[in-house]
Write a structure and sequence with these properties.
This protein is an alpha+beta fold. It has three helices and six strands; from the N terminus they run H-H-E-E-H-E-E-E-E. The termini are far apart. It holds the Pfam family SnoaL_2. This is SnoaL-like protein.
Amino acid sequence: MNNDARLKTWNTYQAAWGPIDESERRRLLEQSVAVDCIYTDPGSQVAGREALMARIGQTQLKFPGAHFRNDSFLEHHEQGLFRWTMYDGAGRVFVKGESFGRFGEDGRLVQATGFFEVPAAKD
């Protein structure tokens, strides 16, 4: 697998965090993360695709319309470092951060770890 394939996987995973319906989110996560993936960020840690689905749903409830854009991508040895920007529902910059990802033999993410300052909930 080359950089383009890993970047495509990452972008598919990132799209699953956006304001989409549950069936589309499930489809994107099935393509991009292993069933037993591990996800961590400053406020949470979950194990498994189903728990990740729930975590993403919580994020959309707390920050409706939030979505990501990838700013840069570095990779080697089935690992990637991704710099990204999260935008709010109105398209304004909301959070900037970095994530580390580890890819499994089938090319899907087996681990994703986000690093960022936790934003306050919007009223």
